[in-house]
Write a structure and sequence with these properties.
Its EC number is 3.1.1.47. By secondary structure, the chain is α/β, with parallel strands linked by helices. Helices cover 34% and strands 19% of the residues.
Protein backbone atom coordinates (compact mmCIF):
# COMPACT_ATOMS: atom_id res chain seq x y z
CA UNK A 1 0.00 0.00 0.00
CA UNK A 2 1.27 3.45 -0.88
CA UNK A 3 1.31 6.22 1.69
CA UNK A 4 1.92 9.72 0.29
CA UNK A 5 3.21 8.25 -3.00
CA UNK A 6 6.08 6.29 -1.50
CA UNK A 7 6.46 2.70 -0.37
CA UNK A 8 7.66 2.13 3.15
CA UNK A 9 10.64 -0.16 3.70
CA UNK A 10 9.30 -1.88 6.77
CA UNK A 11 7.31 -5.07 6.48
CA UNK A 12 5.25 -5.21 9.61
CA UNK A 13 4.93 -3.58 12.96
CA UNK A 14 8.04 -1.50 12.67
CA UNK A 15 7.92 1.97 14.05
CA UNK A 16 4.88 3.96 13.06
CA UNK A 17 2.20 2.91 10.73
CA UNK A 18 1.35 0.72 7.90
CA UNK A 19 4.34 -0.67 6.05
CA UNK A 20 4.54 -2.85 2.95
CA UNK A 21 2.74 -5.63 4.82
CA UNK A 22 -0.52 -5.17 6.67
CA UNK A 23 0.43 -7.46 9.54
CA UNK A 24 2.87 -6.64 12.28
CA UNK A 25 5.56 -9.23 12.83
CA UNK A 26 8.61 -7.65 14.41
CA UNK A 27 10.42 -4.34 14.26
CA UNK A 28 12.42 -5.48 11.26
CA UNK A 29 12.79 -4.32 7.64
CA UNK A 30 11.20 -6.38 4.90
CA UNK A 31 14.53 -7.59 3.76
CA UNK A 32 15.02 -9.34 7.11
CA UNK A 33 11.53 -10.86 7.24
CA UNK A 34 10.65 -13.90 5.18
CA UNK A 35 9.10 -13.30 1.79
CA UNK A 36 6.43 -15.81 2.71
CA UNK A 37 5.51 -13.82 5.81
CA UNK A 38 5.22 -10.62 3.82
CA UNK A 39 3.18 -12.31 1.13
CA UNK A 40 0.86 -13.86 3.68
CA UNK A 41 0.39 -10.52 5.36
CA UNK A 42 -0.44 -8.83 2.09
CA UNK A 43 -3.05 -11.48 1.31
CA UNK A 44 -4.67 -11.24 4.74
CA UNK A 45 -8.31 -10.31 4.90
CA UNK A 46 -8.66 -10.57 8.67
CA UNK A 47 -10.69 -7.45 9.41
CA UNK A 48 -13.27 -9.22 11.53
CA UNK A 49 -10.83 -11.26 13.62
CA UNK A 50 -8.21 -8.47 13.23
CA UNK A 51 -5.78 -9.33 15.99
CA UNK A 52 -3.35 -7.20 14.06
CA UNK A 53 -4.63 -5.96 10.74
CA UNK A 54 -6.73 -2.82 10.86
CA UNK A 55 -5.22 -1.21 13.91
CA UNK A 56 -1.76 -1.36 12.35
CA UNK A 57 -2.86 1.43 10.02
CA UNK A 58 -2.87 3.86 12.86
CA UNK A 59 0.68 4.16 14.10
CA UNK A 60 1.77 7.73 13.45
CA UNK A 61 0.07 8.24 10.13
CA UNK A 62 1.92 10.53 7.80
CA UNK A 63 -0.28 13.60 7.59
CA UNK A 64 -2.56 14.52 6.05
CA UNK A 65 -3.86 10.94 5.91
CA UNK A 66 -5.84 10.50 9.08
CA UNK A 67 -8.73 8.47 10.35
CA UNK A 68 -11.17 9.53 7.62
CA UNK A 69 -8.84 7.97 5.06
CA UNK A 70 -8.63 4.81 7.10
CA UNK A 71 -12.39 4.73 7.52
CA UNK A 72 -12.39 4.35 3.75
CA UNK A 73 -9.86 1.55 3.96
CA UNK A 74 -11.89 -0.13 6.68
CA UNK A 75 -14.98 0.01 4.50
CA UNK A 76 -13.04 -1.57 1.68
CA UNK A 77 -12.02 -4.45 3.92
CA UNK A 78 -15.50 -4.69 5.38
CA UNK A 79 -17.05 -5.29 1.99
CA UNK A 80 -14.27 -7.49 0.59
CA UNK A 81 -12.81 -4.90 -1.72
CA UNK A 82 -9.27 -4.38 -2.94
CA UNK A 83 -6.97 -4.06 0.06
CA UNK A 84 -3.51 -3.37 -1.22
CA UNK A 85 -3.04 -0.28 -3.36
CA UNK A 86 0.41 -1.63 -4.14
CA UNK A 87 -0.49 -5.19 -5.14
CA UNK A 88 -1.71 -6.30 -8.56
CA UNK A 89 -5.44 -6.64 -9.10
CA UNK A 90 -7.30 -7.15 -12.32
CA UNK A 91 -8.86 -4.09 -13.96
CA UNK A 92 -12.27 -5.76 -13.60
CA UNK A 93 -11.80 -6.30 -9.86
CA UNK A 94 -10.52 -2.76 -9.41
CA UNK A 95 -13.52 -1.34 -11.30
CA UNK A 96 -15.95 -3.38 -9.21
CA UNK A 97 -14.15 -2.38 -6.03
CA UNK A 98 -14.40 1.31 -6.80
CA UNK A 99 -18.06 1.02 -7.73
CA UNK A 100 -18.88 -0.81 -4.52
CA UNK A 101 -16.83 1.63 -2.49
CA UNK A 102 -18.76 4.59 -3.80
CA UNK A 103 -22.05 2.81 -3.03
CA UNK A 104 -21.19 3.13 0.64
CA UNK A 105 -19.49 6.51 0.47
CA UNK A 106 -22.35 8.29 -1.29
CA UNK A 107 -24.64 8.39 1.78
CA UNK A 108 -21.68 9.35 3.95
CA UNK A 109 -20.86 12.23 1.64
CA UNK A 110 -24.45 13.44 1.76
CA UNK A 111 -24.46 13.15 5.52
CA UNK A 112 -21.39 15.30 5.92
CA UNK A 113 -22.28 17.84 3.26
CA UNK A 114 -25.53 18.83 4.96
CA UNK A 115 -24.14 19.06 8.49
CA UNK A 116 -22.89 22.66 8.44
CA UNK A 117 -21.04 24.08 11.44
CA UNK A 118 -20.71 21.57 14.25
CA UNK A 119 -19.73 22.41 17.82
CA UNK A 120 -17.21 19.99 19.32
CA UNK A 121 -18.67 18.60 22.58
CA UNK A 122 -17.46 20.59 25.56
CA UNK A 123 -15.20 19.46 28.39
CA UNK A 124 -16.61 17.84 31.51
CA UNK A 125 -14.28 19.18 34.19
CA UNK A 126 -15.27 21.81 36.76
CA UNK A 127 -13.22 24.58 35.14
CA UNK A 128 -13.94 26.68 32.10
CA UNK A 129 -11.06 26.75 29.63
CA UNK A 130 -9.45 29.65 27.79
CA UNK A 131 -6.98 29.19 24.95
CA UNK A 132 -4.03 31.24 23.75
CA UNK A 133 -1.45 30.74 21.00
CA UNK A 134 2.19 31.71 21.31
CA UNK A 135 4.81 31.65 18.53
CA UNK A 136 8.40 31.09 19.63
CA UNK A 137 11.69 31.27 17.74
CA UNK A 138 14.87 29.45 18.68
CA UNK A 139 17.66 31.56 17.19
CA UNK A 140 20.37 29.30 18.61
CA UNK A 141 19.92 26.65 15.90
CA UNK A 142 19.12 26.43 12.23
CA UNK A 143 15.98 24.45 11.54
CA UNK A 144 17.21 20.85 11.18
CA UNK A 145 14.02 19.70 9.43
CA UNK A 146 13.92 22.40 6.73
CA UNK A 147 14.70 20.48 3.53
CA UNK A 148 15.98 23.63 1.85
CA UNK A 149 18.47 24.39 4.62
CA UNK A 150 17.52 28.06 4.42
CA UNK A 151 15.93 28.46 7.86
CA UNK A 152 18.55 29.97 10.12
CA UNK A 153 16.33 29.59 13.17
CA UNK A 154 13.66 27.16 14.38
CA UNK A 155 10.13 28.59 14.53
CA UNK A 156 7.62 26.90 16.83
CA UNK A 157 3.99 27.34 17.80
CA UNK A 158 2.17 26.27 20.95
CA UNK A 159 -1.38 26.41 22.24
CA UNK A 160 -2.00 27.04 25.94
CA UNK A 161 -5.24 25.72 27.44
CA UNK A 162 -5.91 27.61 30.66
CA UNK A 163 -8.29 26.50 33.42
CA UNK A 164 -10.57 29.27 34.66
CA UNK A 165 -12.32 29.04 38.01
CA UNK A 166 -15.91 30.15 37.44
CA UNK A 167 -17.25 29.25 40.87
CA UNK A 168 -17.83 32.94 41.62
CA UNK A 169 -18.22 34.46 38.18
CA UNK A 170 -19.26 32.80 34.93
CA UNK A 171 -17.06 33.34 31.90
CA UNK A 172 -18.52 34.49 28.56
CA UNK A 173 -17.67 32.13 25.72
CA UNK A 174 -16.06 32.71 22.37
CA UNK A 175 -16.40 30.29 19.45
CA UNK A 176 -13.37 29.62 17.26
CA UNK A 177 -12.65 27.27 14.33
CA UNK A 178 -11.46 23.84 15.37
CA UNK A 179 -8.66 24.06 12.80
CA UNK A 180 -7.18 26.92 10.83
CA UNK A 181 -7.58 26.67 7.03
CA UNK A 182 -4.15 25.24 6.07
CA UNK A 183 -4.34 22.46 8.65
CA UNK A 184 -7.99 21.72 7.86
CA UNK A 185 -7.06 21.56 4.19
CA UNK A 186 -4.28 19.08 4.91
CA UNK A 187 -6.62 16.80 6.80
CA UNK A 188 -9.38 17.38 4.26
CA UNK A 189 -7.37 16.34 1.22
CA UNK A 190 -7.72 12.64 1.88
CA UNK A 191 -11.39 13.01 2.83
CA UNK A 192 -12.10 14.20 -0.71
CA UNK A 193 -10.54 11.03 -2.14
CA UNK A 194 -13.41 9.04 -0.68
CA UNK A 195 -16.34 11.19 -1.60
CA UNK A 196 -16.27 13.23 1.60
CA UNK A 197 -16.12 17.02 1.44
CA UNK A 198 -12.61 18.42 1.65
CA UNK A 199 -14.06 20.99 4.04
CA UNK A 200 -14.86 18.28 6.61
CA UNK A 201 -12.59 19.65 9.34
CA UNK A 202 -13.54 23.24 8.54
CA UNK A 203 -17.04 22.52 9.81
CA UNK A 204 -16.04 22.02 13.45
CA UNK A 205 -15.88 24.79 16.04
CA UNK A 206 -14.86 24.95 19.69
CA UNK A 207 -16.01 27.09 22.59
CA UNK A 208 -13.60 28.70 25.02
CA UNK A 209 -13.79 31.09 27.92
CA UNK A 210 -13.29 34.64 26.63
CA UNK A 211 -10.86 36.15 29.11
CA UNK A 212 -11.24 39.56 27.50
CA UNK A 213 -14.84 39.62 28.71
CA UNK A 214 -14.31 37.80 31.99
CA UNK A 215 -15.33 39.84 35.01
CA UNK A 216 -12.41 41.75 36.61
CA UNK A 217 -13.76 40.64 39.97
CA UNK A 218 -13.59 37.03 38.88
CA UNK A 219 -10.03 37.49 37.68
CA UNK A 220 -8.88 39.22 40.84
CA UNK A 221 -10.36 36.58 43.15
CA UNK A 222 -8.32 33.78 41.55
CA UNK A 223 -5.02 35.46 40.68
CA UNK A 224 -3.12 33.57 43.35
CA UNK A 225 -4.35 30.09 42.40
CA UNK A 226 -1.63 27.83 40.98
CA UNK A 227 -2.08 25.12 38.36
CA UNK A 228 0.26 22.28 37.30
CA UNK A 229 1.99 22.62 33.93
CA UNK A 230 1.38 19.75 31.48
CA UNK A 231 2.87 19.37 27.99
CA UNK A 232 1.30 17.32 25.20
CA UNK A 233 3.20 16.08 22.13
CA UNK A 234 1.34 14.83 19.02
CA UNK A 235 1.89 11.78 16.85
CA UNK A 236 4.32 11.64 13.94
CA UNK A 237 3.08 13.78 11.08
CA UNK A 238 0.16 15.09 13.14
CA UNK A 239 -0.95 18.61 14.01
CA UNK A 240 -1.44 19.63 17.61
CA UNK A 241 -4.93 20.74 16.54
CA UNK A 242 -6.22 17.19 15.99
CA UNK A 243 -5.87 16.81 19.77
CA UNK A 244 -7.49 20.12 20.75
CA UNK A 245 -10.57 18.63 22.39
CA UNK A 246 -8.46 16.22 24.44
CA UNK A 247 -6.14 19.01 25.62
CA UNK A 248 -9.07 21.26 26.49
CA UNK A 249 -10.71 18.44 28.41
CA UNK A 250 -7.67 17.86 30.63
CA UNK A 251 -7.35 21.62 31.23
CA UNK A 252 -10.94 21.66 32.49
CA UNK A 253 -9.76 19.51 35.41
CA UNK A 254 -7.38 22.18 36.65
CA UNK A 255 -4.19 21.95 34.56
CA UNK A 256 -2.45 24.38 32.26
CA UNK A 257 -1.97 22.26 29.13
CA UNK A 258 0.51 23.17 26.40
CA UNK A 259 0.29 21.42 23.02
CA UNK A 260 3.12 21.71 20.54
CA UNK A 261 3.49 21.81 16.78
CA UNK A 262 6.77 20.66 15.27
CA UNK A 263 7.12 22.45 11.89
CA UNK A 264 7.94 20.32 8.82
CA UNK A 265 6.86 17.27 10.85
CA UNK A 266 3.29 18.54 11.28
CA UNK A 267 1.18 18.59 8.08
CA UNK A 268 0.98 22.40 8.27
CA UNK A 269 1.63 25.10 10.85
CA UNK A 270 -0.03 28.49 10.50
CA UNK A 271 1.47 31.21 12.67
CA UNK A 272 -0.46 34.21 14.02
CA UNK A 273 1.14 36.47 11.40
CA UNK A 274 -0.46 34.33 8.68
CA UNK A 275 2.72 32.62 7.53
CA UNK A 276 2.53 28.87 6.98
CA UNK A 277 5.14 26.12 7.16
CA UNK A 278 3.97 23.13 5.17
CA UNK A 279 4.90 19.62 6.24
CA UNK A 280 7.44 17.56 4.33
CA UNK A 281 7.43 13.86 3.54
CA UNK A 282 9.75 12.59 6.26
CA UNK A 283 10.68 8.94 5.74
CA UNK A 284 9.25 7.21 8.77
CA UNK A 285 10.61 3.86 7.59
CA UNK A 286 14.15 5.11 8.13
CA UNK A 287 15.30 4.69 11.74
CA UNK A 288 17.92 7.43 11.41
CA UNK A 289 15.22 9.86 10.26
CA UNK A 290 13.03 8.93 13.22
CA UNK A 291 15.94 9.37 15.59
CA UNK A 292 16.66 12.78 14.10
CA UNK A 293 13.03 13.84 14.47
CA UNK A 294 12.98 12.56 18.05
CA UNK A 295 16.02 14.67 18.91
CA UNK A 296 14.50 17.71 17.22
CA UNK A 297 11.29 17.24 19.20
CA UNK A 298 13.25 16.82 22.41
CA UNK A 299 15.15 20.04 21.75
CA UNK A 300 11.89 21.79 20.81
CA UNK A 301 10.22 20.88 24.09
CA UNK A 302 13.16 21.92 26.27
CA UNK A 303 13.39 25.23 24.43
CA UNK A 304 9.65 25.82 24.82
CA UNK A 305 9.80 25.09 28.54
CA UNK A 306 12.56 27.67 28.93
CA UNK A 307 10.61 30.24 26.95
CA UNK A 308 7.41 29.66 28.91
CA UNK A 309 9.34 30.13 32.14
CA UNK A 310 10.47 33.57 30.95
CA UNK A 311 8.43 36.37 32.61
CA UNK A 312 9.09 38.62 29.62
CA UNK A 313 7.02 36.25 27.50
CA UNK A 314 4.52 34.99 30.02
CA UNK A 315 3.57 38.20 31.83
CA UNK A 316 1.96 39.83 28.78
CA UNK A 317 0.63 36.51 27.50
CA UNK A 318 -1.15 35.68 30.75
CA UNK A 319 -2.02 39.22 31.81
CA UNK A 320 -5.75 38.40 31.85
CA UNK A 321 -5.39 34.83 33.14
CA UNK A 322 -6.82 34.49 36.66
CA UNK A 323 -4.20 32.13 37.99
CA UNK A 324 -0.54 31.15 38.05
CA UNK A 325 1.52 28.31 36.62
CA UNK A 326 3.35 26.03 39.04
CA UNK A 327 6.55 25.33 37.13
CA UNK A 328 7.69 22.78 39.69
CA UNK A 329 4.72 20.57 38.77
CA UNK A 330 5.74 19.90 35.17
CA UNK A 331 4.91 16.69 33.29
CA UNK A 332 4.54 15.54 29.69
CA UNK A 333 2.43 13.03 27.81
CA UNK A 334 2.22 12.25 24.13
CA UNK A 335 0.35 10.11 21.66
CA UNK A 336 2.09 7.63 19.34
CA UNK A 337 5.51 9.12 18.44
CA UNK A 338 4.74 11.82 20.99
CA UNK A 339 4.97 9.07 23.62
CA UNK A 340 8.56 8.42 22.60
CA UNK A 341 9.13 12.17 22.84
CA UNK A 342 7.73 12.16 26.37
CA UNK A 343 10.19 9.44 27.40
CA UNK A 344 13.11 11.30 25.81
CA UNK A 345 12.18 14.59 27.45
CA UNK A 346 11.86 13.27 31.00
CA UNK A 347 15.28 11.66 30.62
CA UNK A 348 17.03 14.73 29.27
CA UNK A 349 15.27 17.60 31.08
CA UNK A 350 15.50 17.67 34.86
CA UNK A 351 12.60 20.14 35.09
CA UNK A 352 10.10 17.51 33.92
CA UNK A 353 9.15 15.19 36.77
CA UNK A 354 7.16 12.51 34.93
CA UNK A 355 5.77 11.32 31.61
CA UNK A 356 3.17 9.13 29.92
CA UNK A 357 3.28 7.34 26.59
CA UNK A 358 -0.20 7.05 25.08
CA UNK A 359 -0.17 4.02 22.77
CA UNK A 360 3.16 4.86 21.16
CA UNK A 361 6.11 2.71 20.18
CA UNK A 362 9.58 3.49 21.51
CA UNK A 363 12.78 3.64 19.48
CA UNK A 364 16.46 3.80 20.34
CA UNK A 365 18.26 5.46 21.92
CA UNK A 366 15.48 6.11 24.47
CA UNK A 367 14.24 2.52 24.12
CA UNK A 368 17.45 1.23 25.70
CA UNK A 369 17.84 4.01 28.26
CA UNK A 370 17.13 3.59 31.97
CA UNK A 371 14.38 5.95 33.18
CA UNK A 372 14.39 6.69 36.90
CA UNK A 373 11.47 9.12 36.94
CA UNK A 374 7.84 7.94 37.11
CA UNK A 375 6.53 6.81 33.74
CA UNK A 376 3.27 5.31 32.47
CA UNK A 377 2.60 3.19 29.39
CA UNK A 378 -1.10 3.51 28.55
CA UNK A 379 -2.96 2.38 25.47
CA UNK A 380 -5.28 -0.04 23.77
CA UNK A 381 -5.73 -3.49 25.25
CA UNK A 382 -3.08 -5.91 24.01
CA UNK A 383 -0.61 -3.25 22.94
CA UNK A 384 2.37 -4.97 24.57
CA UNK A 385 1.59 -8.21 22.69
CA UNK A 386 1.76 -6.40 19.35
CA UNK A 387 4.53 -3.92 20.12
CA UNK A 388 7.79 -5.51 21.32
CA UNK A 389 9.20 -2.13 22.31
CA UNK A 390 6.93 -1.93 25.38
CA UNK A 391 8.32 -5.12 26.90
CA UNK A 392 11.85 -4.04 26.11
CA UNK A 393 11.33 -0.56 27.53
CA UNK A 394 9.67 -1.93 30.66
CA UNK A 395 12.98 -3.42 31.80
CA UNK A 396 14.47 0.09 31.73
CA UNK A 397 11.76 1.72 33.84
CA UNK A 398 13.48 1.92 37.21
CA UNK A 399 11.16 4.37 38.95
CA UNK A 400 7.45 4.22 39.72
CA UNK A 401 5.92 2.79 36.59
CA UNK A 402 2.73 1.21 35.35
CA UNK A 403 1.23 -0.22 32.17
CA UNK A 404 -2.46 0.51 31.71
CA UNK A 405 -4.84 -0.91 29.11
CA UNK A 406 -8.05 0.75 27.92
CA UNK A 407 -10.50 -1.75 26.46
CA UNK A 408 -12.45 -1.25 23.22
CA UNK A 409 -9.97 1.24 21.77
CA UNK A 410 -7.72 1.31 18.75
CA UNK A 411 -4.71 3.55 18.18
CA UNK A 412 -6.78 6.19 16.41
CA UNK A 413 -9.14 6.56 19.35
CA UNK A 414 -6.61 8.72 21.15
CA UNK A 415 -7.04 11.66 18.79
CA UNK A 416 -10.13 13.84 18.50
CA UNK A 417 -11.71 11.98 15.57
CA UNK A 418 -13.79 9.76 17.81
CA UNK A 419 -15.30 12.78 19.55
CA UNK A 420 -15.79 14.68 16.30
CA UNK A 421 -17.60 11.82 14.61
CA UNK A 422 -19.81 11.36 17.65
CA UNK A 423 -21.65 14.51 16.58
CA UNK A 424 -22.90 12.75 13.44
CA UNK A 425 -25.15 9.82 12.57
CA UNK A 426 -24.03 6.73 10.65
CA UNK A 427 -25.50 3.52 9.34
CA UNK A 428 -24.72 0.25 11.12
CA UNK A 429 -22.23 -0.68 8.37
CA UNK A 430 -20.29 2.55 8.72
CA UNK A 431 -20.31 2.25 12.51
CA UNK A 432 -18.74 -1.18 12.20
CA UNK A 433 -16.05 0.18 9.91
CA UNK A 434 -15.36 3.03 12.30
CA UNK A 435 -14.98 0.62 15.18
CA UNK A 436 -12.25 -1.19 13.25
CA UNK A 437 -10.30 2.06 13.06
CA UNK A 438 -11.18 3.80 16.32
CA UNK A 439 -12.59 1.11 18.58
CA UNK A 440 -16.07 0.64 19.95
CA UNK A 441 -15.66 2.74 23.09
CA UNK A 442 -18.01 5.67 23.61
CA UNK A 443 -15.94 8.87 23.14
CA UNK A 444 -17.35 10.45 26.29
CA UNK A 445 -16.40 7.36 28.27
CA UNK A 446 -12.90 7.45 26.78
CA UNK A 447 -12.66 11.09 27.78
CA UNK A 448 -13.46 10.11 31.37
CA UNK A 449 -11.02 7.20 31.26
CA UNK A 450 -8.14 9.28 29.94
CA UNK A 451 -8.71 12.14 32.35
CA UNK A 452 -9.03 9.63 35.19
CA UNK A 453 -5.69 8.05 34.30
CA UNK A 454 -3.92 11.37 33.80
CA UNK A 455 -5.23 13.07 36.94
CA UNK A 456 -4.48 9.97 39.06
CA UNK A 457 -0.96 9.90 37.65
CA UNK A 458 -0.46 13.58 38.38
CA UNK A 459 -1.66 12.97 41.93
CA UNK A 460 1.19 10.48 42.23
CA UNK A 461 4.01 12.57 40.78
CA UNK A 462 2.95 15.93 42.21
CA UNK A 463 1.53 14.95 45.58
CA UNK A 464 2.84 11.45 46.27
CA UNK A 465 -0.67 9.96 46.29
CA UNK A 466 -0.58 6.50 44.70
CA UNK A 467 -4.02 5.42 45.87
CA UNK A 468 -5.81 7.20 43.02
CA UNK A 469 -3.72 5.39 40.42
CA UNK A 470 -4.13 2.02 42.10
CA UNK A 471 -7.90 2.55 42.22
CA UNK A 472 -8.20 3.24 38.49
CA UNK A 473 -9.65 -0.21 37.59
CA UNK A 474 -12.29 0.15 40.31
CA UNK A 475 -13.33 3.60 39.12
CA UNK A 476 -13.25 2.95 35.37
CA UNK A 477 -14.60 -0.34 34.06
CA UNK A 478 -12.72 -0.15 30.75
CA UNK A 479 -9.33 0.31 32.39
CA UNK A 480 -7.04 -2.42 33.71
CA UNK A 481 -3.57 -2.35 35.23
CA UNK A 482 -1.41 -4.74 33.21
CA UNK A 483 1.67 -4.45 35.43
CA UNK A 484 3.31 -2.02 37.83
CA UNK A 485 6.66 -1.42 39.44
CA UNK A 486 7.49 0.33 42.74
CA UNK A 487 3.82 1.12 43.29
Amino acid sequence: MEIMSRRHAYCGYATFGIRNCRFRFAAAPCQTASKESCAAAKRSRALRSRPIAVQSWLFGLRGPRGNVYYLGMALEDLYGLAVERGRHVSPEDEKMSRADTMRFFTPISLLFSISGAVLVPGPTGPYAVAMKEQPLTDTSRADPLDPTGKSKSRRLLVSLYLPVDTSRRSCPTVTVPYMNPPVAASYGQQAAQFGLPNTLYNEFQMEFCDLKKFSPCGQASNKGKEYPFIFFDPGFGESRLIYSAMARSLASHGYVVVSVDHPFDAPAVQFPDGSVIEGVDLDDSNLSVLQKVLKVRNDDISFIISQLEDPKIMKPLLADFPGKINYKQLAIWGHSFGGATAAAVIHSDKRVVGGLDLDGMLIDPILSTDITKPFILAGRKGHNAEDPSWNQFWTHLKGKSMEIAIANTQHGAFKDDLMLLSTMSFTAEVKEALQGVLGSIDPHQLDKDLNGILTAYFDLIFYGNKQSLQAIPHNFANVTIVRSNNL
